[in-house]
Write a structure and sequence with these properties.
By secondary structure, the chain is an alpha/beta fold. Helix content is 26%, strand content 22%. The two termini are 26 Å apart.
């Protein structure tokens, strides 16, 4: 995907965003189906009773299949709601996808009166990335929303990453949270 990885996060983000735009719809769909298959085969997913799941944008690894599967199989599904405080998200329960509507940044969100799900109630957090590494670190968009949220829960953390965006190592900052599991369309990495 990239000839050389920049050593600073802003340059790497820019390069990854440009590369992601070049993925065809067919490639993106195959990737999402592969990631769905890999993740739903994991015991941690099958056993999870409450899942925190990001609402994907058109450019991200899609979570529509996962959300539908989790709801269909009786899991309690919660999604992020950005609060008025900068960089803060809360987990809010949704009964179905029709409860979501565009919110801050145009990302689908639950209504503000949706039930709050406490961090200790979550079994598995499924989070987005621009890239991830084999150690479980992820490169996000730079706002720190997910790092702050993940710091407050003991739930297992899985990052969904296109295989072409999986690296041996990424630049890591002191506030970056490590995920336990990295799921691509071809493989699953359990962070050691």
């Amino acid at each position: 995907m990239m000839s050389a990885m920049p050593s600073d996060k802003p340059a790497l983000r820019k390069q990854l965003l440009e590369a992601r735009k070049s993925l065809s719809l067919e490639t993106r769909r195959a990737m999402e189906e592969g990631i769905f298959t890999q993740l739903t085969a994991l015991e941690v997913y099958r056993q999870a009773k409450t899942i925190f799941l990001y609402c994907s944008t058109p450019e991200e690894v899609g979570t529509g299949l996962l959300m539908a599967d989790a709801l269909r199989t009786g899991k309690r599904v919660c999604v992020p709601l950005c609060t008025d405080a900068y960089g803060v998200m809360e987990a809010r329960e949704i009964p179905d996808v029709s409860a979501l509507s565009p919110g801050r940044f145009g990302i689908l969100e639950p209504p503000h009166d949706a039930p709050v799900v406490l961090p200790e109630e979550i079994c598995l957090c499924i989070v987005p990335c621009l890239a991830a590494d084999r150690a479980g670190f992820r490169l996000g968009y730079g706002g720190g929303y997910y790092d702050r949220f993940l710091r407050g829960t003991q739930a297992k953390k899985a990052v969904l990453c296109a295989e072409c965006c999986l690296f041996d190592a990424l630049p890591v900052g002191k506030h970056d949270m490590r995920c336990n599991i990295v799921v691509t369309e071809r493989q699953v990495h359990i962070a050691k």
